[in-house]
Design brief:
Blueprint (H helix, E strand, L loop, with lengths): L6 H26 L7 H28 L36 H18 L10 H14 L1 H8 L5 H5 L7 H19 L15 H19 L8 H29 L4 H15 L8 H17 L2 H6 L7 H19 L19 H31 L6 H6 L1 H6 L7
Length: 415
């Protein structure tokens, strides 16, 4: 092997991989508490199902397409079914300043956890009406066509956006813009829930949502600080930035909610914290803690105000994936171009407020736009094909009965 193993880095990334995987059941509870009681098991299953399907596809072809080869647009099949992963000298592009201090098999496993949670994020937008079989096909195709391509562009040192100088520490574009754009594409075809927006569809179990928020917040330390791929000062900076941004975003969301709606709510606190976690994700290892606080505060305010988009444009984003993940991801990716600081991370670039001019901001805009356009376009085509063939949506009667009974013959709560 041509790389040097650091035992501390290995230990930290092993723990971080477990933390990121834990986020997916956390997401299941976060979303599950927000749906009506007749759909809670359907939501939980859609999320944990991603842990099974995406794992197999990532091992088979996903990792190789994301991190194999030297092409700027897509990887190859050199590592299909993890062929040669334990004997490869180094992963393509991971040389010099980007050389890994962990085994490639661990890097593969860590990145696999990102690949799992990203399509699971889509389920919040499609809640209450997406056929389970259609969901399985959708995320299966998406996990092969869309996620590895975007991951290659942005995360791989050989990717064209990486080479352009766009920055994404832990997935603002790869995870959140990517999933948010896909969610928007699917719901435009799926159409609104029966009765939306006339009928109230309140969360059935907010304690579940708070539990999910806590798990997500906890797991996000592995998501962001783990992306340093070492147990060092950069990981510590990313961890602190992650927490500070989430806290500031929660307060920002609650403040605006209180001013506009008259009450600060439990759901608002949970949503605000997640909005801050989303926005700091691309920035975590590139900005100072004071910048993280401002980014989080901005995310809480702007993501809350973005809730109005679905009513204005008439798309039924059931659990506000667009406002929190798409808008939050875009906001964080663009603010990185403003606040990035090479004194925090010499492998980054200085942003607008740190003497770097508008160059990085332009690169962040390019990356955000390219990822949005690709993910939205490909997902829309895939969803349209599924809708024309097997159908995306459950029938009217199945929707009225609920996904738990109609799709899974189960009930979460006995009468």
């Amino acid at each position: 092997m041509n790389y040097t193993i650091d035992s501390g880095a290995v230990a930290w990334v092993l723990v971080s991989a477990a933390l990121v995987l834990f986020m997916t059941p956390g997401l299941a509870f976060f979303y599950g508490g927000m749906v009506r009681s007749k759909n809670v098991l359907g939501m939980l299953l859609q999320n944990i199902f991603a842990m099974g399907l995406v794992t197999v596809l990532w091992v088979a072809v996903g990792f190789s397409l994301a991190f194999g080869g030297t092409n700027g647009w897509i990887g190859n099949f050199d590592f299909a079914f993890l062929k040669d992963i334990t004997t490869v000298g180094e992963l393509p592009g991971y040389t010099g300043a980007f050389a890994l201090a962990i085994p490639p098999i661990l890097f593969m496993g860590y990145q696999m956890m990102f690949a799992i949670i990203t399509p699971a994020l889509i389920t919040g937008a499609t809640a209450d009406r997406l056929k389970f079989s259609a969901y399985a096909v959708l995320i299966g195709v998406w996990a092969v066509l869309v996620y590895p391509t975007v991951a290659h562009w942005v995360f791989s040192p050989n990717g064209w956006l990486f080479k352009e100088g766009a920055l994404d520490f832990a997935g603002g574009a790869v995870v959140h813009i990517n999933a948010g754009a896909a969610a928007l594409a699917v719901i435009l075809i799926l159409k609104p829930r029966k009765g939306w927006p006339r009928e109230a569809m309140p969360p059935h179990n907010l304690p579940f949502t708070v539990l999910g928020t806590g798990i997500l917040w906890f797991g996000w330390f592995g998501f962001n600080a783990g992306s340093a791929l070492a147990a060092n000062g950069l990981a510590a900076q990313a961890l602190v930035n992650t927490h500070v941004a989430a806290a500031a975003a929660m307060l920002g969301w609650l403040l605006i909610e209180k001013l506009k709606a008259g009450h600060a709510t439990t759901l608002g606190a949970a949503s605000g914290a997640v909005a801050g976690l989303v926005a700091i994700t691309p920035c975590a290892g590139f900005v100072s803690t004071s910048s993280a606080l401002l980014i989080g505060l901005a995310a809480g305010v702007i993501c809350y105000l973005s809730l109005a988009l679905k009513n204005r444009f008439g798309f039924d984003d059931s659990l506000d994936v667009i406002a929190v993940h798409l808008i939050g991801g875009l906001l964080g990716s663009l603010l990185l171009g403003v606040f990035s600081d090479t004194s925090i991370n010499s492998l980054g670039a200085d942003g607008l407020f740190n003497g770097g001019g508008s160059s990085l901001l332009g690169k962040q805009l390019l990356a955000s736009g390219a990822v949005f356009a690709f993910s939205f376009g490909v997902t829309y085509i895939v969803a349209m094909i599924i809708n024309k063939t097997m159908g995306l949506r459950v029938t009217h009667d199945e929707e009225m009965v609920g996904l738990d009974q109609s799709q899974h013959a189960e009930t979460a709560y006995q009468a």
